[in-house]
Design brief:
By secondary structure, the protein is mainly alpha-helical. The protein has two domains: 68-299, MFS general substrate transporter like domains (Growth Hormone, Chain: A, Up-down Bundle); 300-521, MFS general substrate transporter like domains (Growth Hormone, Chain: A), CATH 1.20.1250. The chain has 20 helices and four strands. Helix 4 runs parallel beside helix 10 (213-234), helix 5 (119-147) runs parallel beside helix 7 and helix 16 (392-409) runs antiparallel to helix 17. One of its GO terms (cellular component) is membrane. Residues 86-506 form the Major facilitator superfamily (MFS) profile domain. One of its GO terms (molecular function) is transmembrane transporter activity. InterPro entries: MFS_dom (IPR020846), MFS_sugar_transport-like (IPR005828), MFS_trans_sf (IPR036259).
């Protein structure tokens, strides 16, 4: 029996050192309580039974009070295959979103010609997409905070793919409006992928790596232009819609490799699940998470409370972010739509005719649009450098000012090659604006309201995107100068909002909840 007891002690010590998730202990029990009784042992003899304990239930004594947070665990993971996997999956979401947005610019001239649409009808095709996005953005955000990012993203990808595919069979203009608005309703949930990526990046690398997500967006827009240049002249717009819907179904397949957010799991009181996710990530990166007990505050009974966005600490930030998201989307999508319109006007002038409804984009126009998209790649290194040198707020102010200035310059008569250069700069600065607001919003809000904060802010972005077609496609048709001054003026106002944001998120640890933040401040 002494040998058995000694072996049990050794097993306990080795097991605790080797695998923190399955600590065990021994206890003495009477043989009569054991299932496997032996005739050689009488009822007075005591045996030893090893009893397994679940990790996290009673580990304080084992680790002598050591604790660690989710952020500390994520920082200990470093950068490796785990983050690369997240970048690929989340990048697919971003690229698919970009394709659907760029689709609006290349599809509008074709439908205008085929169905003899008025300018305001063409603008409505874009507007209804953003109406759908504006309605569902807060809903998707709240769902992400309540039910998890991963579950919500499954629903989002299926929604976009299904209604995108149905749009292919639209028999009339009215059906185009209905189905594209439903596609927009799904696109509003795409920022969930950005939130989950943000929550798995180490603090010191977060800004640089989030900047790289802009590559996925630029690749998505470029790919859509290339597909449109090939498909539209030969197969028509229905095939373009069909091809554009395919990435959403591909995402559904790869979603099984996307882990749930550990921050969400901890905030929801599901600590053991969070530990399993973090340990799996550590194995993938050949790293280890800190020893000790994962610190978990009491489970949050109500995730995604709108009132938290207007708590004293975040009220001003929330209101200013809504302005920034509105102007950012208004300017970016305005430039996307205005590109096609400006090129159509340019073609009409070169041909000595009027700007009729059937001035379709030509091969050179697609090349110009692709070149202008390069501006979105150029903004990446600039933002990456400025974020770490002068901070998020001032970088955003510079981006917004640059976008406003070059937008205003578009009213000057110039050769097409110079016009292409100005369009490239506007696209670059406007893409940098989106890069800034996404990163700042994801960093400034606590985990409990992060996707709700992004969702409500992006809802205001959709409002801006709803209105911009009537400037970029309707007002611009009447007066180019009036249109660009609208964009320029709003850009300068937004630059002031960015400069005066109350919280700088440079090197800031992601907060877990509004309550904890307020307690720390007090």
């Amino acid at each position: 029996m002494e040998t058995l007891l000694s072996d049990s002690e050794n097993y306990y010590d080795n097991h605790r050192r080797g695998n923190r998730s399955h600590a065990v202990r021994y206890s003495k029990v009477r043989v009569s309580d054991l299932e496997d009784e032996s005739d050689e042992i009488d009822g007075d003899l005591e045996g030893v039974s090893l009893i397994r304990r679940e990790a996290g239930n009673d580990l304080e004594d084992d680790y002598k009070g050591k604790t660690f947070t989710v952020q500390e665990a994520i920082d200990s993971l470093g950068l490796g295959p785990f983050q690369l996997k997240l970048f690929v999956i989340c990048g697919l979401f971003t690229a698919a979103d970009a394709m659907e947005m760029m689709l609006l610019a290349v599809l509008s001239p074709v439908l205008r010609c085929e169905w003899q649409l008025e300018k305001y009808q063409v603008a409505l095709i874009t507007t209804v997409v953003f109406i759908g996005m504006g309605i569902t953005a807060p809903i998707w955000g709240a769902m992400g905070d309540k039910f998890g990012r991963r579950t919500t993203l499954y629903m989002v990808s299926l929604w976009i793919g299904y209604f995108g595919l149905l749009t292919t069979f639209s028999p009339s203009y009215i059906w185009i409006l209905i189905l594209r608005s439903l596609v927009g309703g799904g696109l509003a949930g795409s920022p969930q992928s950005f939130a989950i990526l943000t929550e798995y990046l180490p603090s010191k690398h977060r800004a640089k790596l989030l900047n790289l997500t802009q590559i996925s967006w630029a690749m998505g827009t470029s790919f859509e232009i290339i597909v449109a240049a090939i498909v539209l002249p030969s197969l028509g717009w229905r095939w373009l819609l069909f091809i554009s819907a395919i990435p959403s179904f591909i995402i559904c397949i790869v979603m099984k490799f996307l882990p749930e957010s550990a921050r969400y799991l901890v905030a929801a009181g599901r600590r053991e699940e969070a530990i399993k996710v973090l340990e799996k990530a550590a194995r993938t990166n050949s790293a280890t998470i800190p020893e000790g007990r994962l610190v978990c505050s009491s489970p949050v009974t109500q995730q995604g409370k709108m009132s938290d966005l207007f708590s004293p600490m975040y009220r001003k930030t929330t209101l200013q972010l809504w302005v920034l998201w509105f102007v950012t989307a208004f300017s970016y999508y305005g430039m996307v739509l205005a590109s096609a319109e400006i090129l159509q006007v340019h073609n009409a002038k070169n041909e000595g005719g009027e700007n009729c409804s059937c001035n379709l984009l030509e091969y050179d126009d697609y090349i110009t649009m692709i070149i202008s998209t390069i501006g979105e790649f150029i903004c990446l290194p600039v933002n990456m450098i400025l974020f770490d040198i002068i901070g998020r707020r001032k970088t955003g102010a510079i981006d917004l000012t640059g976008c406003a200035v070059f937008f205003i310059l578009l009213q000057i008569n110039m050769p097409q090659h110079l016009l292409t250069g100005i369009m490239l700069l506007v696209r670059g600065f406007s893409a940098a604006n989106f890069n800034f607001v996404y990163i700042y919003t994801a960093e400034v809000y606590p985990t409990t309201v992060r996707t709700l904060g992004i969702g409500t802010a992006s809802a205001w972005a959709r409002v801006g995107a709803m209105l911009t077609p009537f400037v970029a496609q309707v007002l611009l048709d009447q007066s180019l100068s009036a249109a660009v001054w609208v964009y320029g003026s709003l850009g300068l106002i937004a630059a002031i909002c960015s400069w005066t944001l109350p919280i700088e998120t440079k090197s800031r640890v992601l907060p877990q909840s509004v309550k904890l933040e307020e307690e720390e401040e007090s």
